[in-house]
Amino acid sequence: MGWRRWGRLLGAGVLGLLVLLLPAALLGPAGPGGAGTGLSAGQTAATAAPGGQTAPDETGGQTAPDGTAGKTSGQTAATAAPGGGTSPGEGAGEITADPAGEGQAVAFPAGEYRAVWVSYLEWQRMDFSDAAAFRADAAAMLDDIAGLGANVVLAHVRPFGDALYPSELFPWSHLAAGVQGQDPGFDPLAILVQAAHDRGLQLEAWVNPYRLQAGGVPEPGDGSLAAVHPDWVRRAGDGLYLDPAEPRVRAYIAAGVAELCAGYDIDGVHFDDYFYPTTDPAFDADAYAAYCAGADDPLPLADWRRSNVDALVALCCQTAHRYGVRFGVAPQGDPAQNRDAQYSDAARWLAEGGYVDYLMPQLYWGLEYQRGADTSHSLAELADAWLAMPRRGDVALYFGLGAYRIGAGDGGDRTGPDSEWQRGDALARQAEALAAAGGQGVGLYRYDSLFANDAFPGLAAREADALRDLWLT
């Protein structure tokens, strides 16, 4: 057990009595929060990829951008902050001060950041029948990732407001035992953390903060927040989402971050690009009306929504830092789409302290991407836009690459056997170009696209070989 885990457990033990105060201290009074191309009104972000492209995502077939060592017996880390701090989530609706500098220092991988996303789609084909079967599948997966030359695993541990670990706050994921809320009898996250560290890999816990359901999946169990706190939940299209304007939602999500950080020796907490799921004003019209009624100089709707997301991101970053855990976000690749369609002010998070330790924009187009005369969504042009943004020296900038484009292409005009995604070295070339331009690392979306690619197995194998040549030689 490392020094950081001892520190986390000690801090959690000191404040264990705060568990009894969770309903009152954490949830507080109800009320609305304070103070490419975008999506059209009513279009849900869960079904629209950046720049108008579509791609298989972790949303159950929709189109979109894109166990022994767990908590000690009886520990409920969600409300215990180390070092005498307050319970994560207190004042969640009033995060305005810069929390940078609070908590413990965070660490990054030595050298270049090289990550692989492992989404809930990968969990769907893994064996959860018992700990030994899951451990064997996890070992094979992590051997592949380490053998590629990667050093970070982004493991999807909370995809639908549920958990791939025993949680006091969220029900068991339906992926673990087939039904949301059903205990598989072991702790998958504990196995993943140990197996990753045994191979010299870091592991970040990947969380979808707001999403509870997409395309009718999963069927909410009794412990789902859709059942326990229906007043926190809003519908967009065929999905259910926690309300970003609700302070108790922010508090609860941050408590979930604390639970992960205190209960497991994770190296980071990772949010992806699922923030506001729609631009439709009807989504939160009542909350916005209540906010406007109580404000002397109310913000416009878009600014108000951005302030709600800012508050969540700042609070979760502050919470992770209390445990010495880094916090990062993977926004969409198109800066305008982030700001105007999902109300995530990623440029602000890059420039100001207290929001993130890193950003990893999802640049899921190739270096040669072009539609007609438009090259604005080519990887090179998008990367240049991000690299030109003001950035604090302690905020790292990585880039997500679309391994799922292998063979299928990125929707650009250039297709055929000589096109970028058909040559077998697109990802390696992209990673090399980004490093030369000033990027500090990359993430590959996603594992199966490289190692279980049924549509293009030969191309995927060549892509993996090219990455090994780049990273291991």
Helix-strand blueprint:
Layout: H1 3-14, H2 22-27, E1 113-118, H3 120-123, H4 131-148, E2 152-158, H5 174-177, H6 188-198, E3 202-207, E4 211-213, H7 225-228, E5 233-236, E6 239-242, H8 247-263, E7 268-271, H9 285-294, H10 301-321, E8 326-329, H11 335-341, H12 346-351, E9 358-359, E10 362-363, H13 379-387, E11 396-397, E12 399-402, H14 426-437, E13 441-445, H15 447-451, H16 457-472
Parallel strand pairs: 1-2, 1-13, 2-3, 3-7, 7-8, 8-9, 9-11, 10-12, 12-13
Antiparallel strand pairs: 4-6, 5-6
Helix pairs in contact: 4-6, 8-10, 13-14, 14-16
Summarize the structure.
Helices cover 34% and strands 11% of the residues. With 473 residues, it is of the alpha/beta class.
**Helix content bin:** 25-40%
Poorly predicted parts: 10-101
In quaternary terms, these chains amount to single chain
- The total of helices stands at 16
